[in-house]
Every structure is written in C-alpha cells, then in structure tokens.
C-alpha cells in the first residue's frame, strides 16, 4: 500500500499548484552526470509554464535529459515575474509577446487554444517549431497530429536546424491514451469500429479543477455546501458528462475529438468511432473502456502478446487476483496501462475485444507526448 | 446548489450505517393518515434488515404506504437484539432461523446469496413468497426475474393469499438501471446489440464499503495511508475494475449478470450484450454508458419521446446548459434518469443510439424494485 501513499503525496504537490523543482535525477545512481544543458542543443520556450501541463513539461524535460542550450519560461502577464528553479538554475517567468520567439528553436505550447491561435503562427514565422498541446490546429490539413509510438511518419521532414518553423499538434489526452492501446491491435487486424466510454480525471480541466475537487471533498466530508466555481456542480463523490460544449449532433467536443483525431492519426477516414466522455472524481489519470470490432479475427491471446510488446504500454491483466489498471497506479507514470483484455461475447468469433486502458492525463496525455515529439525533431 | 447539500446530508446518514427511522410521511400535507398497518394486509419479514438494502426496504415500505399487518425484522445472530423503530413502533431484530417464516406471507431477502440459498427454499416450503435481492436464484429456470416496469408478466399467477410459496428474483442493480432505459426503446425497435460501461457506486458492496470510501477519503486528504479492508486497494480518488470474481472468459460476474439477465428479462436469447463494470468513488448511485444497436431504424427524437413517456424514468437531456444525469441527482430518488440521447455516429443511418443512465443503486437498483414486485403480489 506504500506505493499508493507515495503517489498520493506526489499529486498533492501538484494539486496545490506549487511549482515543482525538478533537480538532477539519479535513475542510474547518484553519480550520473546531467547532460541536458548543452551548447549545441536547441533553444526552448515553454508557453504556459505555470499551468499544470507547463509544470509537467519541465518535469519531463528533466526526467528525460532533454538537451537544450537555453530555456525561456513564458506565461501570461499575470504570472510574469514569478521565479522558477529548474535544473539548478533560476528563471523568471516572462510575459508571452510576439517577440518571445526570437531565436527559439522549439516552443512547447500549453496555454489554451486562443493563445495557440494567436501566438503559434507568429512563432512559426520566426522559424520556431511549435509543439502545441491545444486543440487549435489538430484538425488543420497539413498540421501533423502525432503520437510518436503511433504515427511518427506524419512529421517526416520537420527537423530543428534548418531555420524553418512548423506546427505540430499534440492529440487530445483521451485520444492518445486510447490509441496507445488500440493502435498495436489495429496494425495487426484492422479496427473497423470502436465504442469508447471514458472516466476522465480533474487534471484535464487544469490545476484549478484539481484544487476544486480537493476543496469540495473536504467540504462535503464536513457537511458543508461545496464550492462550485469550475464546473458549477458537485464533483466530489459524483461524476458528470464532460464539461466541453455539446455540438448539434449531441456529442460533446471531447467525444468528437476521439472520433476525428482517431481518423486523422490512423489516416483512415472510414474507421467508425463513438465515445461517451465522463468526468470522474480522480485527480490526474484517465481511464477508458474500449470495445473494438476487427475486420479480421484477432484472438485475445494474440492481442495480449501484441500489447505486451507494444512501446509505451504495460499490460496489467491478472484475472486470478483481480488486478487490472487503475488511474492511481499510472499517475506520474510514463506508460499507459492496459488490461481486461477479453474476447467480446457480443461479437461473432474473434471479431471483437474489450479492453480497459489507464494513462496519466498530464504526462502521456499531454506533456510527455509533446516532449517525445520534440525529441524526434533533434 | 442547496439540493446537492441536502442529498449529501441524506447519504451521510446511511453512510455511517445508522438505522434510519422512517416515520409517517407527509407527501400530501401534515394531516395525511398513514394506511400501511392494516389487519387484512399481508405479514412481512425483512431478512438482512440491518444492511444497507435492508434499511432501504423499511424506508421504501414507509414511503409507499405498503400495507402490512405485521413485520418481522430478521438478521444474523450477530445483529439479533438490536432495536429498530419503524412507523411509530419498536421492533427487536430477531435471529434468522428455519422457523422465522411461519405465518409470513412475503419475505424480502437481502442478506447475500448463501443466506438466500439456505433459507429461501425453507421459506417457500412454509408458504412464503420470497422476493430475493441476491443472485442465488436469478438464472434458475422457473424463477421469475422481474423489473415491474419491464416484464411484470413473468410473475403472472403468483399472489398472496393462496397459501403457496414462491421465489421471485430481483435483478442485479446494474441490469435494472440499464434496462429501465433500454427496454422502452427495445419494445419499439428491437435491440440486437448493447455495449455497456458502468460507473458503479460503493453501495453495491454494502454499507461497509461506503464507510471505507469515506474513511479513505479523509485519510488521503490528510496524507495518511488509506485503510484498505474491503477492496484491498485505494478507492478514494481512484476507480477499479469491479471486485466480483473474474470468470474463465475474462468477464467478471457483474458483467455476465448484465449479459445473462438481459436475455432472461427480455426473453430473448439472441440479444448480444457486452459490459465493462467499473467501481467509481461515488456513494450510492450507479451510472452507465450504453451503446445500442437496433434491428430497425430509431431516430433520436422518437427515442427521446419514448423515454419521456416511459414509467419510472426521467429524461435529463439539456444540451445547451450541459445538464445531464448525475449519480448525485438520482441519489435517494425512485426514478432512473436518462440523457445524452444521440444518434451513434459510428452506426449507419438511425440504427444506433448512445445514452447515459443513472439510478440509485440501493433504491431502484435493489429495495424499491423488490417492493414494487411485492406490491404486485397483493
């Protein structure tokens, strides 16, 4: 049980919105030399550095020894002047302006769609390669929408060092987590239909939503009326349809992202996807129940083998001890977990599978995926 | 927001396992005369009266003015001797024995499958009609499995007063809540396949699980290691695959109940159902994401009309204000709520619909449904 408590403490430090101070990591023992600050490496900018994903960008950059010669911390005017300590150096958060991108090779954006729409093209004009975590450009023709384990070829030809700016979009968190597990199966036996129900964490709505979930939980336990500033409803001990706008077809935007982004990432306009997206009172990792229909048979043992050998994926599928993926277990982890792998009894033969997937929304669902994209630019 | 706080307070009184003391209700004003204690009415027994569902049996009996001439409060030896005040009278909890059913017309059982298997047949031999909330007899040929709004005809001929005992099974909570919404549609345009993902409350695992969820939540908020007596894992701010045993086909028992009970209740051995059952940190109401495939087209406007006119169902489907069913809203309510009614974009024409259903697990998922069955016996 100790592991749970550690993870609990981890997310609490995020939950309260404290700036994390990633220092040199010691994965290989205390004598490991940190390699990330290098003169010939690219110059970086992090846009939205004070947000939940922005903070995770820094954490992942440090964890992965991402090489850089400089890093600029950018945020709104309101956050400008805040101090951030990162890899033994102190930085001041600067206000994002049109001039912020002069001399920047790679900019990691996570400051919302309107900021991306305004400043993304400016950065590209200055020769910066923008990896954008917002939905602003995901469905724009010509903008690669990339999960590095799934469709790295979509960004072929985009490299740091030729002075050319470019936009690359990070898919939505629920799409990334779903396709990390569905794609290896799809590559083996084409998926023709997918029915997804999500169990989405507070973090997808930002650090303020995580704080509100904790505040509300305190209040409800004390018998007080819960504070409902973010979602206008009780979130503690409750769940609700995803808070994104509902479109004329009755799907909300989050659901249609799963439908449309899957088609673009798989480069398959015929794949049929439906989704129901639900917000549950979990802090920072999403879960998804995914029902798959295959063009050709795929039995569950073969599927399990495929998933066990897939990059970025861990199989947790212990039926005897009822041990399957949970959001808490994958919190702060890079890997997406998949389990409950079984033949769908409602489909003929081996044409269907049910699986259950969990992934950290802030990490693989956002920051890690973006930085994996950036690594491919080097 | 006041309504949420009231509901919150309601479930807290259950949460702590206190015996509720339903008094005369005043739905029609303070002068209403309580009609339930009547000389010519049946004699009742409640088996498992100190449990979460047992307590709800009493609450629903009182709410619905269920007529009775006597009521026997039965539980295990451990609980015998406890005092219960019900409708202005005091009762002592008696130990359940083979002799408990002498002279009892109707017994409401909710004490687990093994108690039902042991004492159900004994009660029937004594001429008692048993309405059993356990899974013990649900799939036994000849035992009606009944949702009164769905298949009342299954219990035709079973009546109080002819001295004949009988067994009637209450379906599983997740089956009841799903079929309350799916059946009216199925009656209009046959459902040929259903893909269900559940979001199940603590209450399904009993009052102790509800207490543990609350205790764990306190502990986690205080940074303490959570107490994991019931589920052997952290439940607070987490979710996990349903705790029932996993069968050789990879489905857990809860999921196969949805598959098999649907076929029996609909009297349709061909309906194809798959389910993924997940426990979420919610107290007493289940939610279910249900994807339906129809034999013949059924458009969403027609579906909404059908659901609006269905008994025991309330439609909450306000796209403009993003207002859809939530478990908290249906907690302590009789009606099952349905919303997110929309044409499934992954199916051709109008052959598919997605819906989202919420229902109180203890009430319509267990106690209310059983007492509605008992009402049909009168």
TrEMBL record, chains A, B:
<keyword id="KW-0220">Diaminopimelate biosynthesis</keyword>
<comment type="subunit">
    <text>Homodimer.</text>
</comment>
<keyword id="KW-0560">Oxidoreductase</keyword>
<keyword id="KW-0521">NADP</keyword>
<comment type="similarity">
    <text>Belongs to the aspartate-semialdehyde dehydrogenase family.</text>
</comment>
<dbReference type="Pfam" id="PF02774">
    <property type="entry name" value="Semialdhyde_dhC"/>
</dbReference>
<keyword id="KW-0457">Lysine biosynthesis</keyword>
<dbReference type="InterPro" id="IPR012280">
    <property type="entry name" value="Semialdhyde_DH_dimer_dom"/>
</dbReference>
<keyword id="KW-0028">Amino-acid biosynthesis</keyword>
<dbReference type="InterPro" id="IPR000534">
    <property type="entry name" value="Semialdehyde_DH_NAD-bd"/>
</dbReference>
<keyword id="KW-0486">Methionine biosynthesis</keyword>
<dbReference type="Pfam" id="PF01118">
    <property type="entry name" value="Semialdhyde_dh"/>
</dbReference>
<protein>
    <recommendedName>
        <fullName>aspartate-semialdehyde dehydrogenase</fullName>
        <ecNumber>1.2.1.11</ecNumber>
    </recommendedName>
</protein>
<comment type="pathway">
    <text>Amino-acid biosynthesis; L-threonine biosynthesis; L-threonine from L-aspartate: step 2/5.</text>
</comment>
<comment type="pathway">
    <text>Amino-acid biosynthesis; L-methionine biosynthesis via de novo pathway; L-homoserine from L-aspartate: step 2/3.</text>
</comment>
<dbReference type="InterPro" id="IPR012080">
    <property type="entry name" value="Asp_semialdehyde_DH"/>
</dbReference>
<dbReference type="InterPro" id="IPR036291">
    <property type="entry name" value="NAD(P)-bd_dom_sf"/>
</dbReference>
<feature type="domain" description="Semialdehyde dehydrogenase NAD-binding">
    <location>
        <begin position="43"/>
        <end position="158"/>
    </location>
</feature>
<dbReference type="InterPro" id="IPR005986">
    <property type="entry name" value="Asp_semialdehyde_DH_beta"/>
</dbReference>
<keyword id="KW-0791">Threonine biosynthesis</keyword>
